[in-house]
Each structure stands twice: as C-alpha cells, then as structure tokens.
C-alpha cells in the first residue's frame, strides 16, 4: 500500500508462490506520484489461508520504504510581531499568541495561544535518561554520572537576540558541569505565523563519557492527557529496538505510555517522529514538528528525575503534569544477550562530536 501521512492512496494484493530455499523478484504496481509530501510504501507478507499456528490474514513480515518530502518554498507571513522589552523578560505578541522569554530563567516562561497558558515551567535540555535495568547491569550510571549532574545543574550563561519584522531570534547558552566543561546553545525563532522553531546544539569535547540522550523537556498541565504522532509505533521503540515498528499515525495517553516496570525507568520512547500533537479534552494543545530530520519523543506523566528517584511504582508522586520530551537522539537499550550487556557501539552517542537538532 501507498500512504501519505496516514492517508491511504493505493492498496493492492499480489499472490506469490516461492518454494523453500528459492527467491523471486516481483514488480509491484505502486505507480508514480508527483507529490512534494512524504510517501510511505509498505509491503506485507500475510497468510492466504488458515494454518495450525495462525489464521488467514496473519502478517508474517513487512517492509517499508519512505520517499522523503521535497523542500518547498516557505510563505512569508503577512502579519508582524510586537516585541516588548523589560528588565528581566521579553514579550513577543502575535495574532492570538503571546510568548514571554526570561533573561533570568534562560528560556520561555509563558506560552499562550488564544489566552490559554500551555507551559508550567521553563523548558530545559537534559542529557540523562531514567536508568534502566540494563543500564544498572553494565554500570552505566557510574560511568556516565556527569550527565546526570549536567541535567540538574546546568548554568545559563549568555543571551542575545535579533529582531526582524516577521521574526525574532533569541539565543541562549548553557554551561554544563562536566569535566572538561562543555556547553549547549538553544535558539528560539519566533515567527509571525505564531510558530516557534527551536534549535539545540551540543558542543562535543574529548574526554567525556558516552552521552545517554540529548533532549528537551516541556512540562504541561495534566489536562493535556492525550497525544497522537506520525512516527514509528504503535509500541515503544528505540534505535536498537525498532525492527517490529511501523511508520504511521498512532494515538495514546501519558498514563498508557508509562510502562509498569517493577522499578520505574526509561520508557515510552518513539523514534523517527515527524510530528506529535498533545491535546486536552477541548482539543486545545501543542504540536511539535520536525524541521530537518525526524526526532524521538516521549509523553509521560513523570519526568526523568521522578522516574530515576522511584524504587517502585508506589513511590511515584501523584500525577500533576504531562511531560513532553522532544529528543534529538537517545542511546539504545542494550542487553542483546543478557541483562547488563552494554549498548552496541553503533547505537551509542559519541560525546566527542557536535550534535544538533531542531523542531517547530
């Protein structure tokens, strides 16, 4: 079948017969599509009749091919932005839209659409995931503990901004308490179409341990209790645990996305995400979309530190917030042949190298 962002364009069935030990090639009648948007071609191998072990129609295997979207010229917004400078805060106003940036807190302190407030604290970058059982088994928390302190104790050190008629760009720099010290720059580009582009750039340095994750946490009120996404699914997946996932549009809730492990830990991740939309029962919400490359994400009732600090599920606090994590890259799960087996090198993140990602 051929799909465009979850919508079926074409579907067909081809009956094939291949003897054991043989291979054949078949030309599939997908056709050509003159389309600037991303197309997903999916081929599934399904049983044509009932067997002792599965019913007719059971999917044995599948494969997907993605034809990437073509770059199109962006339209210039016709409206303009109003910028209000204060001693501590900078307010930017658009049509039914207002965002306040703090020079003291180092980021967004208020985000309103049509008068509705969406965030409860300044979004923060983070570099540590809640330790998994596999991580504990290979002493990951001992080897990479610098990134835990970097997530908690990063220091905002510099700010600058540029104003234009149709956009405002704000630059924040954070210093991380690693040895040696490195930094992360976060740029916000506020456009007159009421969108905010976020770019996160990590400066790699030699001598640092492997980086567990590079992400950004947005804490929303718990009323935003459902989300949908266009990415890999339906179940949680990681860069080394994604062979059974399909690219498509799915939906869930923060509570359903929380895996009930005996010991709370990292969970609920999705890779290769094009967009994720978080909403309340009124349909109000935020949508995060990829800019250049698809991102990873999770939506959970708890943040990484709450999961890290809980020994059992009953140690988790009451649910007060919805945590949206937009992730540039997260290391794999590991444990390929036993609990505690380290993550394979191709699924690790080299902290010596620069790493950058962006979303809107």
From TrEMBL:
<dbReference type="GO" id="GO:0030246">
    <property type="term" value="F:carbohydrate binding"/>
</dbReference>
<dbReference type="GO" id="GO:0009341">
    <property type="term" value="C:beta-galactosidase complex"/>
</dbReference>
<dbReference type="InterPro" id="IPR011013">
    <property type="entry name" value="Gal_mutarotase_sf_dom"/>
</dbReference>
<dbReference type="Pfam" id="PF16353">
    <property type="entry name" value="LacZ_4"/>
</dbReference>
<dbReference type="InterPro" id="IPR050347">
    <property type="entry name" value="Bact_Beta-galactosidase"/>
</dbReference>
<dbReference type="InterPro" id="IPR032312">
    <property type="entry name" value="LacZ_4"/>
</dbReference>
<feature type="domain" description="Beta galactosidase small chain/">
    <location>
        <begin position="91"/>
        <end position="360"/>
    </location>
</feature>
<keyword id="KW-0378">Hydrolase</keyword>
<dbReference type="GO" id="GO:0005990">
    <property type="term" value="P:lactose catabolic process"/>
</dbReference>
<dbReference type="InterPro" id="IPR013783">
    <property type="entry name" value="Ig-like_fold"/>
</dbReference>
<dbReference type="InterPro" id="IPR014718">
    <property type="entry name" value="GH-type_carb-bd"/>
</dbReference>
<protein>
    <recommendedName>
        <fullName>beta-galactosidase</fullName>
        <ecNumber>3.2.1.23</ecNumber>
    </recommendedName>
</protein>
<dbReference type="InterPro" id="IPR004199">
    <property type="entry name" value="B-gal_small/dom_5"/>
</dbReference>
<keyword id="KW-0326">Glycosidase</keyword>
<dbReference type="GO" id="GO:0004565">
    <property type="term" value="F:beta-galactosidase activity"/>
</dbReference>
<dbReference type="InterPro" id="IPR036156">
    <property type="entry name" value="Beta-gal/glucu_dom_sf"/>
</dbReference>
<dbReference type="Pfam" id="PF02929">
    <property type="entry name" value="Bgal_small_N"/>
</dbReference>
